[in-house]
Specification:
It is a multi-pass membrane protein. By secondary structure, the protein is α+β, with helices and mostly antiparallel strands. Helices cover about 50% and strands about 15% of the residues. The protein contains 26 helices and 20 strands. Strands 13-7-6-10-11-12-3-18 form an 8-stranded mixed beta sheet, sandwiched between helices. A 6-stranded mixed beta sheet has the order 14-20-19-17-15-16. The longest helix has about 40 residues, at about 740-780. The relative contact order is 0.10. Residues about 1-10 have low confidence and may be disordered.
Length: about 775
């Protein structure tokens, strides 16, 4: 009750003379300041919306157009060809204005219409220019005249200093590939994986589909592509993610790691203070759209930023309400030793300093109160099957104190776990401890993460941190961009004092973090099922490959990604004695609301090279070049909207809507991905200094295996000399072993580099000998 009295801005008492009001000037001042800050935010958002709306022009260009038109009229010429006079005739208040005033108002209206028309034209031109992708298929150093002109025009129409969402209105829509092209590419991708009879049967199914049902389904897709911004993304989110009934822990969520070799401070509360403050700094820049638009590395070509809108305050809801909560709040939900807390990160509109957040986190760590009955393992609902969670949510969390506490978690900016374990590269067996660190980030104890939140920050007892991210709302590069900023800001900008605490002063008058309360019925407490078997089944191996990196790969004139994909194919062939359908995640963010596309890395060319390499054939050099070029072609096709799998997926969705079964689509989309791979690119190298601070590197992140008898492999190219790998599989499969596969990856990388280096040396020696012979002939 004391807290309630302090929150009242005024008091009143009833006296014989009447009501006596006692206003609290400090409280009213805080109300005024809070409202002022709120209005400032609204003005900033309005300003950004205007700037983004008129991009690639600028708001000041309107004044230039108005002045130009008025100046032209002053010279007694009519640039509007009579339109200004027509506008003047139809002015609603012409009787109350002088003739000169009417002319000026008409000229301003005409100028505004002209300015808007020019903006529309510029946006349309930029959209057409960004639809040109032939430049991706041209060799370095052999750029066509068309591409050179295109580069010049894009630079002219791109404007200056774009905000985060400035390009959104100018990005082209994802095109729908032709049925025959998709079917042809699909058959090419499965040829090395099927016997002659199986391939012949699949070819017949494909031809039957192309000649009959395919064109009908394609018509609906083209209609959707005309109407919607992206014909794939909404269905992909709904049917692949939100309608999934299995556990999202391990199967869908993924994780990101801290620095591998360095822990900036061993104090848990201090690390939480800097980390949370850095994430809030990123959110503030995001809200102000001060983050630069993402681009294809090494180019000025923008990528779609639509996924950034849901980084914060987003929660995956189970059951019939499959969707996301999205609203702006200024607190986080914190879990520690079975208790849930609400921690406000703002006071009177001001962001708390790192030292203040550390102070508040320490209060939570020091709180001796026990969990309420059923509270400790409540998060297990979000880790298990979705149907039991949906039923429990509807029955026990739809009203009263449980609903209020659940709303607090789901509407929080993000989730924070203060873990009692110590993790990282430490102890007598640092390699095994890194593997345990990865498993902890992926699933924890199966109840101490809120897997439905867009992301959960995990702070371990020894100061190590990391995050777990839900997959439906966005893909890994979006979360990675935020996490890179948080890590760099934590260590290089905020820093710590000599004792390891956050810098700054403490405000002891901050209100206590609020314990969330629950009333879980006894019968429901016993029904909470922990998905521990799923977590225990995951076999993880994480390692940083430091023998060489992309710098050495570039010297042999190969694509680093293509080189690693070939190494993974070779490693899998040696591990299992066979080839498999391979998934490599690519992105389609060149298009509006684009997400991902699949690169089918196992091709006829890669299989031919691996067989030749293992058999010691002399033609392997020509074959590895063919395989590398094929991979690059497949990657470019996927990026430019000419992939295979998203098109087939959407055709399948349409067939389900129409109630028609397609044997071809059903079989094509049911084939298992026994090797699922993804590269997590470093996007903000300028934030890190690998020369002066070589130990401040993160090992990237990883995910669980897609197939029960397969591997999940995530890798990151860190600087010029390091490649990190996260390999996952399942203990329950006798044919997979993550550590054994990691050894095969290392060996494959060395073997391929040695092959290319020897060939390059032989080629250089032959060229030198040829040059010497030519010189001798000249002397003779």
């Amino acid at each position: 009750m004391a807290e309630a009295h302090q929150a009242v801005a005024f008091q009143f008492t009833i006296t014989p003379e009447g009501i006596d009001l006692q206003l609290s000037h400090e409280a009213l001042r805080q109300v005024y300041l809070s409202g002022l800050r709120s209005w400032k935010k609204r003005i900033v958002r309005l300003k950004n919306n205007v700037i983004t709306g008129v991009y690639p022009a600028s708001p000041s260009s309107w004044l230039f157009v108005v002045i130009a038109i008025l100046a032209t009229m002053y010279t007694r010429s009519d640039p509007s060809m009579g339109l200004i006079a027509k506008i003047q005739e139809h002015l609603p208040a012409s009787g109350s204005m002088s003739m000169q005033c009417q002319t000026v108002v008409s000229a301003v209206l005409f100028s505004t219409l002209l300015w808007l028309s020019l903006i529309f034209t510029m946006k349309l031109c930029l959209k057409q220019l960004l639809s040109y992708h032939r430049w991706m298929f041209e060799q370095h150093g052999n750029v066509s005249t068309t591409t050179k002109v295109w580069v010049m025009l894009v630079r002219i129409f791109s404007g200056r200093q774009p905000l985060l969402y400035s390009y959104q209105g100018s990005l082209p829509n994802l095109p729908v590939p032709a049925i025959k092209d998709t079917v042809k590419r699909y058959l090419e991708s499965v040829r090395p994986l099927k016997s002659d009879s199986e391939f012949e049967r699949m070819t017949n199914l494909a031809k039957e589909f192309e000649d009959s049902l395919g064109s009908r389904l394609q018509w609906y897709l083209k209609l959707k592509a005309l109407w919607a911004s992206n014909y794939v993304s909404d269905w992909w989110e709904e049917y692949i993610y939100l309608r999934g009934r299995g556990p999202i822990m391990v199967n869908s969520n993924y994780y990101g790691m801290d620095f591998l070799y360095v822990t900036p401070t061993p104090i848990q509360a201090a690390r939480a203070g800097n980390t949370l403050h850095a994430v809030l700094m990123y959110r503030r820049r995001l809200n102000k759209e001060e983050i630069k638009p993402s681009r294809i590395p090494g180019t000025f070509i923008p990528l779609c930023a639509a996924q950034c809108e849901r980084i914060f305050n987003t929660t995956r809801i189970p059951g019939e309400e499959t969707g996301n909560v999205h609203m702006r709040t200024h607190y986080v939900a914190v879990y520690h030793r079975g208790r849930y807390f609400r921690l406000w990160l703002y006071q009177a509109g001001r962001m708390l300093s790192p030292r203040e957040i550390e102070y508040q986190i320490q209060r939570i760590l020091d709180d001796p109160s026990p969990p309420a009955p059923g509270e400790e393992k409540l998060g297990a609902f979000t880790a298990g099957d979705r149907i039991p969670w949906a039923k429990a949510r509807k029955e026990f969390f739809s009203s009263g104190v449980n609903k209020r506490s659940l709303d607090c978690i789901e509407k929080a900016a993000f989730f924070v776990t203060l873990d009692d374990d110590e993790q990282g590269m430490m102890g007598d067996d640092p390699a095994a401890n890194v593997d345990r660190y990865a498993k902890s980030l992926l699933h924890g104890k199966c109840y101490d993460r809120w897997f439905d939140k867009s992301f959960s920050v995990v702070i371990f007892k020894n100061g190590k941190n990391g995050l777990n991210a839900e997959h439906s709302w966005a893909d890994a590069p979006i979360v990675s961009h935020m996490w890179e900023y948080a890590l760099a800001t934590d260590s290089f900008q905020l820093g710590y004092n000599e004792e390891g605490h956050c810098k700054g002063d403490v405000n002891p008058s901050l209100p206590q973090p609020q314990r969330l309360t629950w009333d879980i019925p006894k019968q429901k407490q016993n029904e909470v099922k922990i998905a521990q078997p799923l977590a225990d089944d995951i076999d993880f191996h994480v390692f940083a490959f430091r023998d060489f990196g992309k710098g050495s790969i570039k010297k042999i004139k190969m694509s680093p990604d293509g080189f690693i994909q070939l190494a993974l194919q070779l490693a899998f062939y040696r591990d299992r004695g066979m080839f498999c359908l391979t998934y490599e995640a690519s992105m389609t963010r060149l298009f509006r609301e684009g997400r991902t596309e699949t690169v089918r890395s196992c091709s006829s060319e890669s299989c031919a090279f691996i067989k030749a390499f293992e058999n010691g054939e002399v033609r392997k050099m020509r074959l590895i070049r063919n395989a590398s070029e094929k991979h690059q072609m497949l990657y470019r096709l996927a990026m430019t909207g000419a992939g295979i799998d998203r098109h087939l997926f959407c055709l399948y969705v349409v067939s389900k809507y129409l109630g028609i079964e397609s044997p071809f689509l059903k079989e094509a989309l049911s084939e298992p991905w026994r090797l699922s791979t993804s590269q997590t690119p470093f996007q903000q190298l300028e934030l890190f200094d690998f020369v002066n601070h070589p130990d401040y590197i993160t090992c990237g992140g990883g995910f669980g295996p897609v197939a029960d008898d397969g591997y999940g492999v995530s890798y990151s190219l860190i600087g010029e000399k390091i490649i990190s790998f996260h390999v996952s599989s399942k203990h329950s499969c006798p044919d997979t072993d993550s550590h054994k596969f990691g050894t095969q990856i290392r060996k494959a990388l060395h073997d391929l580099l040695q092959l290319m280096t020897i060939n390059q040396s032989d080629a250089a020696g032959s060229e030198q000998n040829h040059s010497s012979k030519t010189q001798n002939k000249k002397e003779l």
